[in-house]
Amino acid sequence: MKGEGRYRWGAAIADFYIFSIVGGVVPATYVAVVGEPVSPLSQLGLIVSIFGLVIVYHVALARRANIRTPGEILMGGVLVDDIKRWTNPFRVSRTALFAVIFVALIVAGNSWESAADERFYSSLTPGVVIGRVLILSGLVVGTAMAGSGRMKGGLLIVAYLGLYALGTYSSPPDGVAPEVTRGMAMSSLVLTIACALVVFRYHRALKPGDGTDAGGISS
């Protein structure tokens, strides 16, 4: 089916980022409870394991599986008579919307990197980990909703990017000059506004009805 490979690999990339974010909760929780960083090697091993599992699923299992992963949902995957099809609930191409979704996932992908950093691991207190888990859960749910045409999810994406911009300004990295911090915060704010405009555009471009079109693939 035309375009199927593009959507399958888009789903695989999204799943890698999503499950990396979810998997990162494990070392972060360890740091918050034990009070010492995890080894960089274990952090790398976790990422490699997630990458391997995602590749195996999408190469060998995805077409026959009667389930949908978060990445498949956000790329428009639906099950029709136990057959996985790719749909577009919008009247226009989703290229710009997918760009917003993947930018948000890439930004969120760095959420737990301090777990293996000798300098910054202490910032992962139990309260910080719990708060970050709640925020990232909202983002992951939002990406799946937005990609499948439920545009309230787009608001969750924009809210996450806005919180990221606010955090960049209010809690700058140690050793970063104030002017660099202001530049980073301003760039994050501009990105948030641009993403909000994209989300608004796609809200107006939804197809009439329930947003599901099992007839096949569209961009």
Structural domain count: 1
Helix content: 55-70%
Overall residue-averaged pLDDT value: 87
Distance between the termini: 13 Å
Summing up helix and strand content along with how strands pair, one would put the structural category as mainly alpha
Tell me the number of helical segments per DSSP (H or I, 4 or more residues long). 8
Question: How would you describe this protein?
Answer:
Mean pLDDT is about 85; it is low at about 210-219. A hairpin with a 2-residue loop joins strand 1 (about 75-80) and strand 2. This protein has about 220 residues and is mostly helical. It has one domain (about 5-205). It has 8 helices and 2 strands. It has a two-stranded antiparallel ribbon. The longest helix has 27 residues, at about 180-205. The chain is globular and about 50 Å long. Helix 7 (about 150-170) runs antiparallel to helix 8 (about 180-205). The protein has helices at about 5-25, 25-35, 40-60, 70-75, 95-110, 125-145, 150-170, 180-205, and strands spanning about 75-80, 85.
Topology:
Blueprint lengths: L3 H20 L1 H10 L5 H22 L8 H5 L2 E4 L2 E4 L8 H14 L17 H22 L4 H19 L7 H27 L15
Antiparallel strand pairs: 1-2
Kindly list the characteristics that best describe this protein.
219 residues; mainly alpha; two-stranded antiparallel ribbon; 4% strand
Structure described in brief:
The chain is mainly alpha-helical. The chain has helices spanning 4-23, 25-34, 40-61, 70-74, 95-108, 126-147, 152-170, 178-204, and strands spanning 77-80, 83-86. The protein contains eight helices and two strands.
